[in-house]
Amino acid sequence: MDDRLFKELKHIPILCVEDEDGIRENIVQTLEYYFDEVFEAQDGNEAFELYEYYKPKIVLTDIQMKNCDGVELIRKIRQIDKDITIFVLTAYSTEEYLLDLINLNINHFIIKPLNLKKLNEALLKYLDKDLKPIELCKGLVLDIEKREVIYNSNEIISLRKREKDFLQLLVKRKNSIVTYDQIEQELWLEKEMTTHALKSFIKDLRSKLPINIIKNIPQEGYTLIKEGC
C-alpha cells in the first residue's frame, strides 16, 4: 500500500454520503483508517448542510438515495465549488445517471461494492491529480511534486508545504480573490490564523520568489498577478 495514503490524507476532511446505515458505517470505518476528519450523511439534504458547514476536500457519495439523490447533491455543490473532488459510488443499475455525472465533472467512479483496492485507486488518483507543474508566470513554474519553484529553467527555490499549498490555491482561484477565511480554512488546519501570522507568511514567501506574483486586496484577501509577468 502506498505510504502517501497515510501521510498526505491525514488532515484532509472527507464527507461520506450513503443512505443504507450498515453500508455507510462500514465505509466510514474504512475511511477513518486514512482520514482524521470523516463526516457522514444519510441523504443529499443532510450532506449539503454538512458540506456548507465543514467544507470537506472530498465527497464520496452514493447515487440512489431518498429525499435528495447523489446527482442533485453534486449539482448543488458544483454550482458553488468547481474544484472539490467528488467520488461516486455506483452500481451497474445506475447507468442512466452516468451522462449527468460526467457533465458534472466527477473525478472518479467506484463500482459497488466498495473494497480497499477500489478505494486506494480513487485516493491515489486524488493525490496525483494536481502533480503537474503549473506556470505561475512567464518563466516561473511551480513543481507540485517536488515542492519547488523553478525560475527561468535553472534557478530552483524550495518551498514549505504551506507555501506550495498557498500558491496552488491562488492558481485555482486565479480569476477571483482568495479570501482570508479561505486561507484559514485551507492552510491553517491545526490552529487559528492570526493577522500577524498571515502577514509574516506572505512576507516570507514573497522574499523567496524572484517575481512578485501575490497581490493583496485590502480587507479581502489575495490574488495572483499575471499581468506584466
UniProtKB/TrEMBL annotation:
Keywords: DNA-binding, Phosphoprotein, Transcription, Transcription regulation, Two-component regulatory system. Residues 13-127 form the Response regulatory domain. Residues 132-226 form the OmpR/PhoB-type domain. Residues 132-226 bind DNA. InterPro entries: CheY-like_superfamily, OmpR/PhoB-type_DNA-bd, Sig_transdc_resp-reg_C-effctor, Sig_transdc_resp-reg_receiver, WalR-like, WH-like_DNA-bd_sf. One of its GO terms (molecular function) is transcription cis-regulatory region binding. One of its GO terms (cellular component) is protein-DNA complex. One of its GO terms (biological process) is regulation of DNA-templated transcription. Gene3D superfamilies: 3.40.50.2300, Winged helix-like DNA-binding domain superfamily/Winged helix DNA-binding domain (1.10.10.10). This is DNA-binding response regulator.
